[in-house]
Amino acid sequence: MPWLSIRRRLLFNMCQRIIRNPFLCFNILFLTIIIVILTFRTSNIQQKCSLDQNIAQQQNISYKSSLNKPVIFIGGMPRSGTTLMRAILDSHPLVRCGEETRVIPRVLNMRAAWKKSTLEWNRLMAGGISESMIDSAIRAFVYEILLQHNQYADVLCDKDPFVLKYASYISSIFSNAKFLLLIRDARAVIHSVVTRKVTITGFNLSDYRQNFKVWNKGMETMIDQCTLVGKDKCLHVYYEQLVLQPKKTIENILKFLNLTWVDSVLHHEELVGKKISLSKTEHSSDQVIKPINLEALTKWIGHIPDDIKNEIDTLAPMLKKLGYDTQSDVPTYGVADQLVLSNMNNLKENAEFWDAKAKAYARHLPNDTSLFQNHTNN
Ligand SMILES: *[C@@H]1O[C@H](CO)[C@@H](O)[C@H](O)[C@H]1NC(C)=O
Ligand SMILES: *[C@@H]1O[C@H](CO)[C@@H](O)[C@H](O)[C@H]1NC(C)=O
Ligand SMILES: *[C@@H]1O[C@H](CO)[C@@H](O)[C@H](O)[C@H]1NC(C)=O
Ligand SMILES: *[C@@H]1O[C@H](CO)[C@@H](O)[C@H](O)[C@H]1NC(C)=O
Ligand SMILES: *[C@@H]1O[C@H](CO)[C@@H](O)[C@H](O)[C@H]1NC(C)=O
User: Where are the strands (E) in 208-248, listed by range?
Assistant: First the structure.
């Protein structure tokens, strides 16, 4: 760069004229150049740093800064009232659950598979992928999905039936998570799976025997997980009690969740399409548009094959353990509240209105069904 050398020579000559020491002049010039270069570079680095900081701060807003929000996980075997439960909680002004995320149980399942395989786990550890690194990445993923899906609600909530299988792990990465385990008579669950043709991994639409076994295994795991995290973090919610005595049952649930009572939780149907959004690919949407009712309580009666009835305590011992009457063909679940009886009247008197509404929310699959066939995988 000739202009630089000319200028340097000029400066050098000027300096020599003033100081009359060529060596000192050379040093001064050299130092000046170094200082100029350094100043320029530092300001550049500072700029870049503050840019990175800005990005980090923006990212912080989305999850780290609010990492302590309470999170509710609603689970249980599919067809056990998990959608009704989440619609009820969605009616609380502080909570938002929303539709099934589907990705949360899958990510938890994937992490469980890594951990289960000694070979894979050892490879991860040997490769410098530590357990705490995995935990914090899983936590970030789950939290980010919940935060954005729940529109930054005060109390986050996830309804994905199979999350309950991972309750103790979730509890270890979310210190303020609480769990609601929905429990429902297996006979009603299986009748619903079969008649509504819900495809769930493990269930077979024409094999009652297998379905009871699968239900039993799933319930065993979830009850165990619930016990592991403890009574203060995991609550058993019986579907039958929820629909028969909603006030008492929901009061108990809100107390457990440390949420104040609001009357809107008894009238979730008024918020459907407003605060409550329902997915047209979920099986229960056309049921939870209605006020809390008893329509699905005893539909199964008279539809369980005789041979299965006789074997029920061996096929699904959990049913009796959970307090269900497995001997009676027509078990009673309890007395219905006046509110529920008047809801039933409303449904009968305005049948056309409710049928039309149910049709509007009927399950409607996207055209490429291959991607959406399975209601819940794992
Ligand atoms: C991110 O949030 C944490 C916790 O609130 C805070 O300690 C940290 O300084 C924040 N980082 C940035 C870059 O804002
Ligand atoms: C759906 O589940 C069946 C097993 O019930 C499985 O074979 C199939 O691959 C699953 N499909 C998708 C798209 O996940
Ligand atoms: C479901 O059960 C029926 C009857 O037991 C059997 O024939 C069929 O192969 C089963 N289907 C699957 C996918 O396992
Ligand atoms: C319950 O919520 C109140 C505020 O709504 C809070 O002050 C209190 O610490 C909470 N209690 C528990 C046990 O989380
Ligand atoms: C799906 O199929 C229906 C009828 O077969 C058609 O009217 C609609 O345009 C299709 N939607 C898409 C996104 O392809």
Answer: 234-238
201 Cβ below 6 A of ligand 2? yes
| CA–CA separation, 202 and 214 (whole Å) | 6
Query: 137 alpha carbon to ligand 3 midpoint, in Å?
Result: 39
Q: Where in the sequence is the domain holding 13, given as residue range(s)?
A: 2-60
* Ligand 2 atom nearest residue 370's Cα: 13
Q: Indicate whether 376 belongs to any domain.
A: no
Residue 42 shares a structural domain with residue 81: no
329 CB near ligand 3 (under 6 Å) = no
Nearest CA to ligand 2 atom 9: 374
pLDDT digits (tens, 9 = 90+) for 253-295: 999 999 999 999 999 999 998 889 888 888 888 899 999 999 9
| Ligand nearest to the backbone CA of 199 | 2
The pTM (predicted TM-score) of the whole model is 0.77
Mean pLDDT, range 289-315, rounded to an integer: 95
The residues that are catalytic are 100
Contact 207, 146 (CB under 8 A): no
Query: What CATH number does the domain containing 226 carry?
Result: 3.40.50.300
Whose alpha carbon is nearest atom 10 of ligand 2? 374
Q: Write the residue with the smallest CA distance to atom 4 of ligand 3.
A: 207
Confidence band of 65 (pLDDT split at 50, 70, 90): very low
The number of folded domains in the chain is 2
Helices of type H across 230-337: 239-244, 246-256, 285-288, 306-315, 317-321
148 and 124 belong to one structural domain: yes
Position 1 pLDDT exceeds 50: no
pLDDT digits (tens, 9 = 90+) for 214-256: 999 999 999 999 999 999 999 999 999 999 999 999 999 999 9
Specify the ligand 3 atom closest to the Cα of 209. Answer: 5
Nearest CA to ligand 2 atom 7: 201
Ligand 1 atom at minimal distance to the Cα of residue 60:
1
Beta-carbon count within 10 A of 245 CB: 20
If you measure from the C-alpha of residue 145 to the centroid of ligand 4, how many angstroms do you get, rounded to a whole number? Answer: 25
Task: Establish if 282 belongs to a structural domain.
Answer: yes
Contacts of 39 (CB under 8 A, 6+ apart): none
Q: In the numeric block, which tokens belong to residue 143?
A: 């939290």
